[in-house]
Design brief:
Aspartate Aminotransferase, domain 2; binds pyridoxal-5'-phosphate; 40% helix; 2 domains; 3-stranded antiparallel β-sheet
Amino acid sequence: MSNVAHRMQRIAPFYVMDLLAQARQLEAQGRSIIHMEIGESDFDTPAPIIEAGQAALASGETHYTPAKGIPALREAISGFYRHYYQTDLDPSRVIVTPGATGALQLAMSVLINPGESVLMADPGYPCNRHFVELVEGQPVALPVGPETGYQLTAELVEAAWREDTKAVLVASPSNPTGTLIADDEMQRLYTTVQRLGGVLIVDEIYQGLVYDQVGGTALRYADNLFVINSFSKFFGMTGWRLGWLVAPDSFVDPIDRLAQNIFLSAPTLSQYAALSAFTPDVMEILEQHRQAFQQRRDFLLPALRELGFSIPVTPQGAFYLYAGCGELSDDSQAFAGRLLQEGGVAVTPGLDFGFNHPESHLRFAYTTDLDRLKEGVERIKGFLSSGNNNI
Ligand SMILES: Cc1ncc(COP(=O)(O)O)c(C=O)c1O
């Protein structure tokens, strides 16, 4: 009998990693592959951040930092909310973490008792349910569709509320759908969750990657909640493993204690590098990246619709399109496999994002340049017209 803990039976792999491995193998054989499966920016980290990291290394910043992060970075994050989101945030509520991943683990660990449940949207970011499983809680995935912009609403939360419900986790913009929760809906969610005696956790990791409108933060109108954020996506720093958590005052000490135990501190080098992430120079570079993403979305959205994919809600953030492929195939996983092998385009099947009709959905990431996206669309067109999608 295996000695692997039972909880591991409930931790599913990230299927897209298999697909990525297959894509890399095909590339090693000389095949050209258009990557639309990768959930990270194709832009490198802005040069001033890299230079700040190099300077930190050269000056010997190679030791642990306080578990909550260096005070200067916590101040800088608070200043970022003040400057860009007109939101006052006491830096004492900011905890610097190893990515949003570290922030999500801290939040779940300090909030969820064994057996308590956490409501979340399906489709959604797959790791969320595993963070809940790890602390012996119960993830409750609520199916959402185009009628609510693939997001939870106050009504959905209220209807699904149970005796054991402790928290609600939402993401705006969302992965995989790229949709936002409007300010008024977020306020209704917050007041509903408060009234029901639970805690709202808002994942704002794609903050900054917002199109057609000005992005926001739930912190602008709510205090008693958890906000997850990261340098990974908008700042283009996935490999630096740096994020942050904003928590209600009363949770800061328990989080500090837990962080001291489970990771001691977020990477020191990354923290010093991130001090320059909010400077006007860097923000200007990031604005150019944002515009490039918007241009790509504006190309890809109508192009995919024309090919027969169904994208009923225009995504206004992140770098994903979540497309119904039910008219083209009834097995999105097999479809993605054939599209990769025969069409040379890698996309992520719905299976990675939950249990809500994954067989008829695919996620397209526009994390590759416009020319490659155009080529990708041509290849998909060729694949569809060959009839090979009829699986
Ligand atoms: C919604 C969401 N939350 C959290 C993460 C984790 O990001 P990181 O740990 O790199 O900050 C991701 C990564 O794709 C994500 O899409």
